[in-house]
Amino acid sequence: MEAVANHLIAQPVRLGWFWESWHAGVAAALMGDVPVAQNRFAAALKDEPVAPWMDDAQRSVRELLQMVQDRKAVRSWALERIAACRQSLGLPPFQPLDGVLISELPEITQPKQ
What pTM, to 2 d.p., does this model score? Predict the structure, then answer.
């Protein structure tokens, strides 16, 4: 998870690339990097919603911003979304592996500028 989060936050913030900011914000929030998560979520909210799905996605960003200080709440949010998606696809329930959304991982490292 740490390597994925580091990769995602190393990408530049670009207006019009909503999912890059959204994914980087979620990854940073899961890792406990509140300032980066807040920055990326703010960038995702700057994109003009061009379709109904984007309104829903930005609603989830606002929800995440309310809990970003609580890493366990973000983890629960992610696990609930995974479970709902798997159920809607008819897949068996998700069984998290140790160290994946479960254990306390080291804080994310910032890319060198």
Answer: 0.78
